[in-house]
Task: inverse folding
């Protein structure tokens, strides 16, 4: 028969009752064994003492039950039933107490386990927050370092930009000065060309004058020869003609000397013109190099210098 809550079962046979008592004892021993095997039970000395006391009571009851079972033939049925009832009552009370204690221990274990999980979770969150704080600190330090580096780069770029502006301004002034010098050189080249042209004209005039002089001398010589053969006796006139020829020859030599001097002056002017043209070419090359250098040094800013220069035309010397 089944046991009801708060009452003892009724047994018709003594062997059934003994089996029930042994089963209850075995179950009680199993509960006690489970409590002893618990980690938190080992940590709680008070509950350990209570469990030990209950175990001792159960052992005493077991011994008493065995003694009663052994001596049941010598005792009366009434006494035996009374003792059985008392034992069963005590077993039921002890079982209920064990159930309550087991439930309380289970609740305590669950609560401690929950607290342990809460502590573990809190510790993990603490470690995670600590790692996150360290990461944020490291990230802030990196951001600060990068910001300082960027500020320094901006300062260097501003300084370099100012330096390049000053340098470009200086080169602009220098370029203006060069343009002024180029204009002066152009004027000098024009003046030199004019002088060369005048020298060529003078040389040409002297050349024609020399030719005319030679022609006159030839005409006079022809006349002199004709008069010499016509009148052999006019010796004195011949001598005078010879003297005139000598004067013409001297004048011719003077004209040749003047032509030589003019030629030398023309050569000097041509050399000066060549030197001026070479200097002009060098200045053009320098201006081109400075423009290229300025363009390479300042990629963010584009400074355009436009120089309008006329093509130089050199007239050939006649």
Result:
């Amino acid at each position: 028969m089944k046991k009801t809550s708060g009452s003892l079962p009724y047994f018709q046979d003594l062997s059934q009752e003994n089996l029930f008592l042994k089963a209850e004892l075995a179950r009680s021993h199993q509960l006690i064994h489970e409590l002893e095997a618990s980690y938190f039970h080992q940590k709680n000395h008070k509950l350990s003492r209570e469990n030990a006391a209950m175990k001792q009571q159960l052992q005493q009851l077991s011994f008493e039950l065995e003694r009663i079972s052994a001596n049941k033939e010598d005792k009366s049925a009434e006494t035996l039933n009374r003792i059985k009832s008392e034992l069963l009552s005590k077993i039921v009370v002890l079982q209920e107490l064990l159930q309550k204690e087991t439930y309380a221990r289970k609740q305590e274990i669950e609560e401690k386990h929950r607290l342990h999980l809460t502590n573990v979770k809190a510790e993990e969150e603490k470690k995670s927050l600590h790692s996150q704080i360290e990461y944020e600190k490291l990230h802030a330090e990196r951001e600060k370092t990068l910001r300082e580096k960027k500020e320094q780069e901006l300062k260097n770029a501003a300084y370099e930009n100012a330096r390049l502006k000053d340098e470009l301004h200086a080169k602009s002034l220098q370029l203006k000065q060069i343009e002024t010098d180029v204009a002066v050189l152009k004027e000098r080249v024009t003046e030199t060309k004019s002088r060369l042209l005048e020298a060529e004209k003078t040389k040409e005039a002297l050349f024609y004058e020399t030719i005319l002089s030679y022609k006159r001398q030839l005409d006079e010589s022809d006349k002199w020869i004709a008069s010499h053969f016509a009148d052999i006796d006019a010796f004195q006139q011949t001598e005078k003609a010879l003297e005139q020829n000598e004067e013409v020859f001297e004048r011719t030599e003077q004209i040749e000397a003047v032509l030589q001097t003019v030629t030398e002056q023309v050569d000097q002017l041509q050399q000066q013109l060549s030197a001026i043209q070479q200097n002009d070419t060098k200045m053009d090359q320098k201006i081109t190099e400075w423009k290229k250098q300025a363009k390479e040094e300042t990629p963010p800013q584009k400074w355009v210098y436009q120089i309008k220069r006329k093509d130089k035309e050199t007239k050939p010397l006649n």
